[in-house]
Task: inverse folding
C-alpha cells in the first residue's frame, strides 16, 4: 500500500504542476516539514537497518519533495537540484527491479529534473529508461511527453514533434501534450492552415475523450479520493487542464 501511495503521489504531481498559480506560503512550509520528517525517517531506518524497500521509499519522498520545492517555489537553486538528483539516484539504486511502476516514475521525474538543470542528454536517457520499463500506455505516453519537452529544450524540434505525436497516439486523451506540441509547430513554421484545422478538430475530440475517461476513472478507482479532489471542480464536474484551452486558442488563431 505504501508503494501505491507514493506512485499515486508521483503521478499526480509529475512536475507539470497545473495549479502553480495557487501556491501559498503555508504550502511551502508544509513541504519543508514533510522533507524534515522524511529525512528523520530515513535516518531511523539506517540506524535500525531497515529494509532497502523502506529506504528507497524514504529517498523517493525526499527527491520528490525537493523537486517540487525547486520547480514551484524556485527554492534553493543548484544546491537543491543536486540534492534532489542524488536522492533520485539513491531511490533508484535501492528499488527492487520488480517494482517497475515505481521505477518508471522515478526515472521520469529524474529526467524532468535533469532537463530543468540543462542536462539534456542525461534527461533523454532517463526518459528512455522510463519508457522501456513502462508496461501501460499511460506511462509510455507520459515518458514520451516528457522526452518531447527535453528535445524541444535542446532545439531538436522535429524529434520533439515526433515524440509528442507518439505520446498522443498511445493515449488520445493526453490533452496536456497539445500545448507544447503547438508551440513547437509554431516555432517550426512549417504547418499549413489545413493542418492547423485538422489539429484543432483532433484537440476538441481529445477533450471529449479526456472528460469521459477521467469521469470513469474517478468513479471506478478504489483509491481515487485524491484523484477526484484534483480533477473535479466545486460542483463535481471534471476539470479540464487549462493548457488545452490555450492550445486551442493559438490553433484557432493560426488556422
Result:
Amino acid at each position: 500500500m505504501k508503494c501505491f501511495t507514493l506512485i499515486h503521489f508521483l503521478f499526480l504531481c509529475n512536475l507539470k504542476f497545473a495549479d502553480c498559480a495557487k501556491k501559498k506560503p503555508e504550502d511551502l512550509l508544509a513541504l519543508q516539514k514533510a522533507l524534515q520528517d522524511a529525512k528523520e525517517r530515513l535516518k531511523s531506518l539506517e540506524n535500525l537497518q531497515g529494509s532497502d524497500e523502506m529506504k528507497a521509499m524514504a529517498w523517493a519522498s525526499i527527491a520528490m519533495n525537493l523537486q517540487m520545492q525547486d520547480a514551484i517555489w524556485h527554492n534553493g537553486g543548484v544546491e537543491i537540484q543536486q540534492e534532489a538528483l542524488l536522492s533520485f539516484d539513491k531511490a533508484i539504486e535501492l528499488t527492487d527491479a520488480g517494482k517497475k511502476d515505481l521505477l518508471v516514475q522515478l526515472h521520469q521525474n529524474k529526467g524532468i529534473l535533469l532537463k530543468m538543470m540543462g542536462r539534456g542528454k542525461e534527461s533523454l536517457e532517463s526518459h528512455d529508461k522510463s519508457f522501456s520499463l513502462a508496461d501501460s500506455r499511460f506511462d509510455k505516453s507520459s515518458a514520451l511527453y516528457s522526452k518531447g519537452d527535453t528535445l524541444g529544450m535542446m532545439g531538436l524540434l522535429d524529434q520533439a514533434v515526433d515524440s509528442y505525436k507518439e505520446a498522443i497516439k498511445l493515449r488520445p486523451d493526453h490533452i496536456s501534450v497539445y500545448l507544447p506540441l503547438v508551440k513547437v509547430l509554431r516555432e517550426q513554421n512549417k504547418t499549413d492552415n489545413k493542418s492547423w484545422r485538422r489539429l484543432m478538430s483532433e484537440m476538441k475530440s481529445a477533450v471529449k475523450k479526456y472528460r469521459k475517461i477521467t469521469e470513469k476513472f474517478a468513479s471506478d478507482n478504489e483509491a481515487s479520493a485524491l484523484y477526484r479532489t484534483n480533477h473535479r471542480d466545486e460542483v463535481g464536474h471534471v476539470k479540464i487542464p487549462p493548457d488545452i484551452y490555450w492550445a486551442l486558442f493559438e490553433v484557432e488563431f493560426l488556422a
